[in-house]
Amino acid sequence: MTGRQRAEGEGQVVAVRADRPPSPTGSGASRGIVAAFLVSAAGAVGFAAAYGLGGGTRWEGVGLAVAFAGLAVGLALWGRHLAPGGGYVEEHEGFAPAPDEQALTAAALTAPDSPVRRRGLLAALGLALTALGAAALFPLRSLLPRPGARPVRALGETPWGPGVRLVDDNGRPLRPRDVPADTLVAVFPEGDAGAGDAPAFAVRLEPARFSRPPAGGHLDGLAAWSLLCTHAGCPVRLYLKGTGRILCPCHQSSFDLLAGARPVAGPAARALPGLPIEVGPDGFLRATGDFTAPPGAGFWDTP
What we know:
Keywords: 2Fe-2S, Disulfide bond, Iron, Iron-sulfur, Membrane, Metal-binding, Transmembrane, Transmembrane helix
Strand content: 15-25%
CATH class of the domain at 156-287: Mainly Beta
Protein name: Cytochrome bc1 complex Rieske iron-sulfur subunit
Shape: flat
CATH topology of the domain at 156-287: Rieske Iron-sulfur Protein
Structural class: alpha+beta
Organism: Micromonospora olivasterospora
CATH architecture of the domain at 156-287: 3-layer Sandwich
Helix content: 25-40%
Radius of gyration: 43 Å
Mean pLDDT: 81
GO molecular function, one term: metal ion binding
Distance between the termini: 77 Å
Number of helices: 5
Number of strands: 12
Transmembrane segments: 33-54, 61-79, 121-140
Low-confidence stretches: 1-18
């Protein structure tokens, strides 16, 4: 396309201009282009031959380099001497509206019934925007520490407390004889069996085997601890009968109940919290207080 062309469509005038016509195809550039492409083809054949004859990666790379170099030179010569050159300019109307349109817009905005001249609407809009801006600041308050909401304090308070009876998973209150020797029994606080931080277990061990007394004390070998692993909060219900050890199935933390339920293997670094218990006047087991430490994952201990 050469020269200057104009076309009209939907009230706009578009002009396209080619500054420089392409060079004649019969010039020496054509011969150079053909030679470059032939070199490229020769390089490709050389690569194929080197690959087929097992000539090694060096000659294969040389063949590819010659092929791509010849192709690049040929395309460059083609674009430089045969393709149309120069820039293209597309003209269009100015961005400013026509004077009559500007006058109509100014008259509409300054008229008595113009929306921007109604002070009541503007005041209501300002109030709405101010309220929205103030409301957007409230979520920032969630980033500030709040008294009473610290994890250590929250997990340090469970439904266990003085006088709360121990029940099994059926809600049946337990007596000391309901916990056989060397057998783990899951226990829950009466009335709050569904509390996530309250599950515990009771086990009866030989008192003479204790190298460290349970943190919550014991009743002739009967002691209770939190059921939640101090590593990630999984329930530790794999009791190794006869060893006095209990295992967490999630990450294989092991706790020695004969040594204060301290961790002896696995990632847990904190002993299981003990639950102080006694026998109530009615003959049932009941707690005398909360756990001796926050139950569950140990990272809640971080202040």
